[in-house]
Amino acid sequence: MKALLFEMNTSRIILSKLLGCISPAAYMGRFAALQYREVPDARLPADDWVLIKTRLCGICGSDYKQVFAIGNWDNPMTALISFPQVLGHEVVGTIERVGPAVTDRRPGQRVVLNPWLSCQTRGIEEPCPACAEGNFSRCHNFLWGLSSRGIHSGTSSAVTGGFAPLVPAHQSMCFPIPEGISDEQAVLADPFCVSLHAILNFPPGPRDTVVVFGCGTLGLLAVAILRALYPETRIIAVYKYPHQKVLAERFGAAETVSWRPTVGVIPRIASLVGAEMLVPMHGQPMLNGGVPIIYDSVGSAASMEVGLRICDYRGRIVVTGVATPKRFEWTPLYFKEVSLIGSNGFGFEDFAGQRKHAIEIYFDLIEDRGFDVTSLLTHRFPLKRYADAFLAGWDQGKSGAVKVLFEYPP
């Protein structure tokens, strides 16, 4: 089958970074680590796995970072993945084939992928403490079991992802899509669940004012979730591009603040929340008080530094985005006793008095409340036009991209 294969080839990556200074298209060129090529057909790692015929697959921010070589060489997460990889974990498809031990999935079912390669998927009979609680993204056994190393589909050499026409998945990874929910709605399940996990674990208080940093897919979904679940919350969204501002306001942001120029963000937040600005000898001001909670979908040094300066005393910054680590001024972290919290993935969540999987919560919100965020879907491409797809996401200011999809013929 033809797929997008990413090989960890240091020479190719270095050459792509050099040529990428001239044009970002170099990251998809003939010397790049990512190539559209023939690969062996996807196989079933065990008898209780299925093969999914891909219909749609979203490009995640983590996919962009890997393809454009954005990151540091000493990233410890490389201990948990294996190469070569067929990326892509935001998958909607139809079950094509089932293994002989599959009991509750059948060919022809339309499903969305829950991509975590956790204990059950690896054939580990006694689940780790995280999996026993339904926290699959924190599994202790990403190195062991039937599959090769990998956190989720697309990060394992043995479990190809959705940048291919066929995707292997354990039967527990396949969530049937209700008849009234479209492929376009279902393909947003994964990023929705990432934002939901952050908000449910660290929710706003009654009538709080919160800041959502970044209006890409995760940030805009955070705005929509906050508006749906906590309607009395006042949401301030920090955006980068004009089309993001439009969507943030449509999804429920009461105020929007442009990230550019960065020096204007803190004074603008100060005026919106009525906080005094403390002006240092050098650099940007810090608020005397501020907002109680910030959902940072960017995770850059710049966003976290500004976040610490605008956060209230004993406030919380919940980080779902991961940018390249850099130095930033973090003295307000201790002075204000701010909690800087990472939020990773999703699994079972406590919601409305029940313990349910985040994907099921998403489907319930669509069916029961008419929750619809499909306006995030801005671009679609066939897999062979992968360069156009990645470049649309690279230059969002020019393309107007938010969520870019690969679509496959029926």
Element layout with pairings:
Layout: E1 2-6, H1 10-20, E2 34-38, E3 49-58, H2 61-67, E4 85-86, E5 90-98, E6 110-113, H3 129-132, E7 166-170, E8 174-176, H4 183-186, H5 189-201, E9 209-213, H6 217-229, E10 234-239, H7 242-251, E11 255-258, H8 265-273, E12 276-278, E13 286-288, E14 291-296, H9 301-310, E15 311-319, H10 331-335, E16 339-342, E17 348-351, E18 354-357, H11 358-369, E19 377-381, H12 386-394, H13 396-399, E20 403-407
Parallel strand pairs: 9-10, 9-14, 10-11, 14-15, 15-16, 19-20
Antiparallel strand pairs: 1-2, 1-4, 3-5, 3-7, 3-20, 5-6, 6-8, 12-13, 17-18
List keywords for this structure.
single chain, 410 residues, alpha/beta, Quinone Oxidoreductase, Chain A, domain 1, Rossmann fold, seven-stranded mixed β-sheet, six-stranded parallel β-sheet, 20 strands, 25% strand, globular
What do these coordinates show?
- The protein is an alpha/beta fold.
- The chain folds into two domains: 2-188 and 374-407, Quinone Oxidoreductase, Chain A, domain 1 (Alpha-Beta Complex), CATH 3.90.180; 191-342, NAD(P)-binding Rossmann-like Domain (Rossmann fold, 3-Layer(aba) Sandwich), CATH 3.40.50.720.
- Helices cover 27% and strands 25% of the residues.
- The protein contains 13 helices and 20 strands.
- It has helices at 10-20, 61-67, 129-132, 183-186, 189-201, 217-229, 242-251, 265-273, 301-310, 331-335, 358-369, 386-394, 396-399, and strands at residues 2-6, 34-38, 49-58, 85-86, 90-98, 110-113, 166-170, 174-176, 209-213, 234-239, 255-258, 276-278, 286-288, 291-296, 311-319, 339-342, 348-351, 354-357, 377-381, 403-407.
- The strands form five sheets. Strands 3, 5, 6, 7, 8, 19 and 20 form a seven-stranded mixed beta sheet that branches. The chain has a six-stranded parallel beta sheet with strand order 11-10-9-14-15-16, sandwiched between helices. The protein has a three-stranded antiparallel beta sheet with strand order 2-1-4, with no helix packed on it.
